[in-house]
Structure formats: C-alpha cells, structure tokens
Amino acid sequence: MKSKTLTPLFDLEKMAGSNGHSGNGFTGMDILSVNQFSPDSLEYIFARAREMREMVARAGAADLLKGVVLACLFYEPSTRTSSSFIAAIERLGGSVIPITQGVQFSSVSKGETLADTVRTLEQYSDVIVLRHPEIGSAKLAADYASVPVINAGDGAGEHPTQALLDLFTIREELGSLNGLKVAMVGDLRYGRTVHSLTKLLLHYDVSLRFVSPEILRLPLTLMNEVIDAGIDVRETHDVADVIENADVLYVTRVQKERFNDLAQYEAVKEYYVITPELMEQAQEKMVVMHPLPRVGEIHYSVDKDPRAAYFRQVQNGMYVRMALLAAVLGRA
Amino acid sequence: MKSKTLTPLFDLEKMAGSNGHSGNGFTGMDILSVNQFSPDSLEYIFARAREMREMVARAGAADLLKGVVLACLFYEPSTRTSSSFIAAIERLGGSVIPITQGVQFSSVSKGETLADTVRTLEQYSDVIVLRHPEIGSAKLAADYASVPVINAGDGAGEHPTQALLDLFTIREELGSLNGLKVAMVGDLRYGRTVHSLTKLLLHYDVSLRFVSPEILRLPLTLMNEVIDAGIDVRETHDVADVIENADVLYVTRVQKERFNDLAQYEAVKEYYVITPELMEQAQEKMVVMHPLPRVGEIHYSVDKDPRAAYFRQVQNGMYVRMALLAAVLGRA
Amino acid sequence: MKSKTLTPLFDLEKMAGSNGHSGNGFTGMDILSVNQFSPDSLEYIFARAREMREMVARAGAADLLKGVVLACLFYEPSTRTSSSFIAAIERLGGSVIPITQGVQFSSVSKGETLADTVRTLEQYSDVIVLRHPEIGSAKLAADYASVPVINAGDGAGEHPTQALLDLFTIREELGSLNGLKVAMVGDLRYGRTVHSLTKLLLHYDVSLRFVSPEILRLPLTLMNEVIDAGIDVRETHDVADVIENADVLYVTRVQKERFNDLAQYEAVKEYYVITPELMEQAQEKMVVMHPLPRVGEIHYSVDKDPRAAYFRQVQNGMYVRMALLAAVLGRA
Q1: Partners for C (CB, 8 Å, 3+ pairs)?
Q2: What is the pLDDT of residues A278-287, one digit of tens each?
Q3: pLDDT at position C106 over 80
Q4: Domain B161-314 in CATH 3.30.1330.10
Q5: Best residue in A3, A9, A104 to probe C by mutation, most C CBs within 10 Å?
Q6: Residue B147 neighbours by CB under 8 Å, 6+ apart
Q7: Measuring CA to CA, which residue among C19, C13, C110 is closest to residue C67?
Q8: Architecture in CATH of A21-158+316-328
Q9: How many CB atoms lie within 10 A of CB B95?
Q10: More exposed terminus of chain B, fewer Cβ within 10 Å: N or C?
C-alpha cells in the first residue's frame, strides 16, 4: 500500500505547542548549582511552588506538563530524591522513564560514557534528572545534552534542588528569610546540604551558628565566604549553646565513621542529638529541619512536636521540583 | 520580580476535588487484614470490581483516580502483585512511584526505619501499597501514615488482597458463595493464602475439605475456628479423596524443603498434583485455582481445561485492587 | 448494602472502544522477526513513524493509545531499548508496567516458566515487550500469549525493531532505499543487528560491502542468501577500501574477546575505527550509523560531523516503536 492513502492518525493543527508562559528566563536552563540563583529567581520559583501546593491540595494533578517525558537517570539509588521527581512530573501530567536501578548493569557496563548515555536519553525525553556519584558529572551531562539537565546530586558536588527546598521550607515555616537566626548542626565538613543552604542564605539578612565537632567544622573556604558577606556568624561545639535563640535548627548526622578515635566520637556525640528536653529550651516558633534519612540524631519523640518540620520539608521538595520542571520546560 | 505579577498557572476554581462518591465507609481506610471485611463490605467491593472489569473491557482505562499517586513500596520482589497494583492504578488514570527493587540499597540501607520511609512517601503520594518480609510491618506503616496503607503481604502475616481476589474468583466462576464444597490442597500449614481465604469463607455456607501431608496440616488454631463456625469440615491426605465432590480445588505447592525426610516427600508428593486424569473425575462445573507461581503441582496439560481458573484469577486480582483503591480513596 | 443500590462509577456508553483504524493487517500481530515484513508493510510502518515524529515535535504526546497498558518484561537489562519502548507508549498516552530489573529475583526465581509469566502479565496488559537472553523465547511467549508480543531481543536470535529503525534511518537520511551502497563494518559474524538489517535490505536495489576481520566475516548462510538475491556484494578487511563510495557506513564493535590471539586483534583493530581523517574521504551525503553503545570504534570527534546519524537513529527508534505499538493494537 502507498503511504498517501493513509488516514492521518493525528489532527496536528489542533495540537498545542505551548501555554504561552515565558519560563521567566528559566526556559531551557540546566539546574546545576545553587550559584545560578538570585533572590529574584528564588522568589519566582517559590511563588510557583506555592501554586503547585495549592493545585495538588485541590486536584492532585494537572496537565501543565502533559506530553513531557522526564528521564530519571540515577547512577546511585536515592529513593527519596527519585520518588520526589517522579511524583513531581506525574502530578503535572507528564511521564517518566525511570532508570533508577542497575544502570551499572546495562549500557554503562558495556563501557558507554555518560556523554553518550545522556545524548541517547535526550532522544526520548524532554528533560533529564541526573544523580551520579562523581563531582562534575551533571555539568558534563549538561554540556552534551540539548535538553535541560537537573542535577540531583553529583557526589561531593552539589544537590541544588535540596538546597532550594530547604530554603523554601524556612520561608514557608517562618514567613520570611530575613531577620532569622539559623543554626546548622552536625557534620558541617562533608554535609553537602549544609554547604549549599549556607550559600543561598548569604543572599539574606540572617545570623548563622555552626555547631559541630572540631573535626567536622565548616570548610575554611566557605567560612571565609560567610565572613566576607558580613554575616553575623559564630561556631560552637554544642547544640545547647544555640538552642534558645535559634529560629531554625538544621540538623545533619554525625557519622561514627568520620572519627579515627571512637572514644572521641562517644565523648561528643550527644552534643548533636535533638531530644524533647532540648526542645523545651527552644523558642515556640523555632523549626527543626533535617535532609533525612536520620539515624538517631533527632529522637522519634520529637516528631509530634509541631516545630518538627522535616516531613513538611520533604513535601516542599515535591512542590519546588514541580516549579523547577515547569520553569525549565518553559511552562511557568 | 514580584510574585504578585505572575499569571497563575492553574485555574483552581475549575479543579474538581471529588466525584461525589462516598467510599461507603472505606474512605481513608487501611487494608491490613481479611478480618476487616464483612459479607456486606465484600459484596460492595465485588460489585465495584465487576464495574472495573466492564470498564476495562470497554475502554481499557478511565479517569476515576486521575491525580492520584500510588507509592508501590516493595521490600521484597513480587512481580505478580506489584504488576497488578501498577496496572490497577494506571487503568484508573492515576500514576505510580515504583519502589519495587533494591529498596535495601537506598535510604533503608542508610538505617532509615520503615516509619520514616512511610512518612516520607506519604508526602508525595495519596496511597501506599506495602510488601515487607516482616509480620506486622503493614500495621506499623499504617500507624504512622496518614494516607491509606494497603498490605500487599507482610511475611508470615497476611496478604488480604490475595484472599479477596480468591473469594471474588469463586463467586464469579460459580455464581454464588453459598452451598459450595471447597477443597484446599497442598501446604496448608504455611500457606498464607489458604489461611486468609479460609477465614473469609467462614462468612458463608460452605463445606471445607483440607488435603495435605501430615506435617503440613492446617494450624490447630485455624482448624478450631472452622469447627467453631459450625462448618462441615474434613481433613484428608489425598486429593483423590475429594476430587469427585469438590466445587473448588484451591491448590498450593508442597515444597520439598518442608520435609526433613526426603523419602517421605517422595512418598506423598503425587497426592497433591493435579493431572488431566484426576480432572476426569471432577465435576463439570468445578474450578481449579492457584495463587501462582506453580512449579509442577498442576500439570500444564490441565491449562486448556475450561475449569482451570488460575489465569482468570490473576485478572480478577487487578479488578479487585482497582475497586479497593477507588474505595479507600473515596472515589467509589 | 446491596449492589443494586450502587451509583455506577463509569458511563460505559460514552467510553469508546476503537478509533476506527484498521491496523492494516498488523492488528493483534506478534512482532518476532524481520522476516515478517514485506516492502509494503515496511513502507506502512515508516509512514506511521513519520506521523509520530511530527506529532511529538508538535505536542510531545497524544492520546492514541490511552487506556493501553504495556508490560515491559526485560530478563536482561537494556536501558536503551526499554527506555525507547517506555517513551513510545507514554508519548501515545498509554502506560507501562516496567519489569526491567531483577526479574530473576521474583516469580521466575521461584521456578515459574516464561509461559506462565507471560500468561500472568497478559491478564494486566494489552501488549508485551520481551527481552530475553535465549533464542526462541519471544516465539514461545507469543505462542502462549493472547495479546501481541514484541521481541525486543532474544539472545542470538532477532531484535526486529532495531532492524526496522536502522532501515527507517537510512530511508529518512538518504530519501530512498534503492540505489544505495551500504557498507557494514566490524563484527559481522555475531552482530545480530547486521544480520537483520542485511535481510531487510535484500528487499531493495542496494549494493552491499562487508568489512570485517577474517574471523568475524558474515556467516556463510547469510552470505549465500545475499548472493542468491542477486545483490552486488563484496567483502573486504579494511574500511578504507569502502569509504569513498559508501552511502551508508553501518559500524559495529570488534570486541577484543572474539580473538584467541591478541596480537592478531592489535594488528587489525584500526581498520574498523571511524576517524575524522577517514571521514574526509567519504561522500558529502554519506551517513554513519551505529546500534550503540560504542566503545572507541567511532571517534568522539566524528560526532559533530553532520553525517554522524547515530543519535538521530536512536530517536527514530522511538518513532518506529510508536508506529508498531499503534499498529499491533489496531489503532493505526
């Protein structure tokens, strides 16, 4: 048979290409680092995230990203982050290619480079979310891909959407980002989320308190950045020193493995654990945050305290990611 | 830019929240055990399951659960059950976060508790389907989650949706649940599906025949429940004893591993195998069921016998799960 | 409550069953081998694939296969192929049950046969895409399944959708399939894609050049088929011999592991590598293709050459699979 005799499958005239939204400068952008964000663009994403929250509460999902396929490429598992992106695209009417397990067993194990994998996936998809154990991998992927790449964690590098959801949570919980006393607690040396959130907070009028064991203090370079920004900053070894005045307690885990001398770990570990007793000393409007998972550093009995914001923080991650996806795809 | 200048992404006024269905008491309910079901509520779910079957035959899918996200959290793989739930939510217009493999490599391996994992996933999703190797895990998850939890098997505990689909299959194949002679065959000691189906059948006017090796007889407690219910019941060692009168033959596997003495296994194994020769002795309207997978306990040559209902049973599982999902989400 | 008091969930009268397309003989067909395709049916699929490309460019996705559930059953991982099928069904409004990892840990490990797995999955789904390491497995699955089965690679057997996308790519890149000189390069002995594409090309007026190490020459049977078809054919050991006249260079990898004598591999390997220098000798309209992944056999510096068609080839795979899915489901 000849193709000219075919009845067309689609009425292409009727198929819409865009919703007329401009993306406000985000259209086509890769999201690789918190350094890409100004207070204005943060405010824009947060406003969109609030709309997402309202829409989800009202209807569960919308068709804003109908027709969009997201490639969710995770070279290391992260249930929380991949689930958040999957829910985000699905609640906007798009769909997902989940490559969240066993990437190592497939093309990659046959020796394919990340550049080739990314250029393959962009043939099928409209946006790529990448989790990779190596620093710089998201940048490399973005250099090769013609579709937007969102960095969902590149090893010791960045995890910008986590920092955005952390900042959004502070904003939503406390109504403002200015005039706050934020205490970061735990492993401040290796904690990627602490570093990224700190950088974002430098845009605002905040006081910072860094609470860690000596060997896990904030890296010198970042500390100097904070000082150069003219921020009111102090370091301490015990969360008890900051609990009374803090508006935000951002808790991370102090891992035993970081200590050469286990006796040293045993001696200090309790200084970084949030208990109901400690919470009694805190302000009534203080919020406790944690990037999760936690393993003992916040007691379970703290969970029912209304100031425990860590699960609301998880939910905010979905809204922020919905906003980012809509923005980089030019639909917000 | 200021957020007040934004053109809204969604027309929230137009977005529907509910279809006006009441859920008939199921709305928000966790599905943990067959003990939650009365004959009335079973009849309600079965009526909805029939509607699902008709809808799928007509259109493949509907939008009843559009906007719903199901978290499919499987700590141990079960392709059959997870595929059934995934198809169920998709055929109702909802979507899925599949966490069906390698959960052990992610947050969980970092030491996160089931309670935290569940409270994280409920931030993204509207209903959680949980498979977990430990008895009581579904109850624990439900205690922490604010969204409905459906138990898809908790080790030696329960697997209620399997029992519901088994009962629904008997009902659909034979037109009634009363007046039937049901024979359970195989491993009646450890067979979770046998225990749950037996409990549900106690609601009806049935006769029960239990066919097993001596060491795999029905647990004493359950046997006493059956007797206390005033049911006509007998135990036997050979399926040949029951084949002529049975309306239902519910077959499970007798695993070699259960026997300390392999000679004993060899001596009895053929008593629990369904062959075409055995089928010749059965009634014309009898049905053979099996929770699958099977490994030799039903000969492949039995498959073409119209009384072989085990693949129809699989399909019924999808309809029953569709009905349950719609019900607990308040849309049925 | 009685089921007769239920308000129906669905308006079944309004639910459409079909779009009126005939499927042109493909409806319900299994896609197992390239031998099933005539020039007419190839032209039909290619015309539909072009419509898919235009629709995706215009709208991203359509509702043509709304209500369709695809079971994507991969017994061995192949990110490229599974992602392509997943994107294909999603861009047509259908959904997917992804069983692309760890099948070996589930029912299958409990001893379930492929026949039973397939008959289980067809209870949930409308079409099954199967990747399996054993030759003949797709045929076996199709023998048991009542829904269409698409072979996505059965070991040393076939991978027909790859051959179709290869042929479609040649057609789209060069405007015709007749009058072309096609050179196949690399491992022609074990290369499944080379064998299938060669068979399809026998339908057309082409010249074939086979370029391989001595131990990796085209199998004798296939070579005889080519000769019997009256095709202009030659074999050679060096891609430099064919580069000047070729319209298509179809490159595959020469694996070190194929050689008993590594010195022999080292001596010949450079004859099968595509470099920018080699490309200078080629025609301006020649195209370089590769089934991917590649590992060194095409230099990365060739990628920016407009004649490098291998990533466009990947994209064509999605369109061809969309066309096949629509066709076997009777919607094209």
Answers
A1: A, B
A2: 999 999 999 9
A3: no
A4: no
A5: A9
A6: B122, B125, B126, B127, B128
A7: C19
A8: 3-Layer(aba) Sandwich (3.40)
A9: 27
A10: N
